[in-house]
Amino acid sequence: MGFHMDWRTAIGIAAAAFTTLAFLPQLFKIRKEGSAELSTAMLTMYVAGQALWLVYGIAIGSAPVIGANLVSMVLVTAVAIRKRSAAARGRRPLRIAIDMDEVMADALSEHLRRYNTAFGARVTPDDLRGRHIEAHVPAAHRAALDAMLDESFFADLAVMPGCQEVVRELALRHDVFVVTAAMDVPCSFDAKYRWLRRHFPFIPASNIVFCGDKGIVDADYLIDDRPHHFGRFKGRALLFSAPHNTEETRYPRVGSWAEVGRGFREVEAAGPAPRTRVVEARA
Fold this sequence. Notes:
elongated, Monooxygenase, 283 residues
């Protein structure tokens, strides 16, 4: 007695084959390109398999099979359409790393306030053009100046003008990371973290990076006020203007958060940015 296959069984077998073998193109893509990005062929096969399972469920009158595969087909189709749309635009979310002190947080104003109060001085940001505060104060005051960078120093820093709005806007479209060299002041970890959670709650804790050498950061852009942090960074450097870096000419400069916002809107309009350094020259 020969095996007889009706049309419903054939559809079920075809559905199983499509959904089971859908991951083969993904495996080949990973082996060939080293990429975990979803393969278009995989998505196509998977949606086709889900559609056949839906037909099979209707044919046998199974509500669970119909419902489960209808939902799965809608979700996977949405992913495929979004992926295709992004590919057509030639874009992917940018990875943007942002320094905290003197970029997001106005640390200089607090340092000057504490120093001027302690020593009856009148040092202003204009006095620090081209140099750090440590190089401006008398040598006898430097130990006290360093001691001012205690945990309380970082607790109530003012947010740089426009920073919250622009960073929130960027975080909606891109992967934003706060990358701060907290190893310079080890006692600052807790205070900096609390400050960020209070003022930038939309940045997930997993995107807050405390480090020393920022060359470890894998990002498309690094916005920082200290040029030495660009030395080993492999992405594109954006120097955030501050009194101490006014004489720096090696890197593209942004003077405000409004300028940062405009710059990234221009980048988005122009298409994807290459993962290469803007400036290779060294002084």
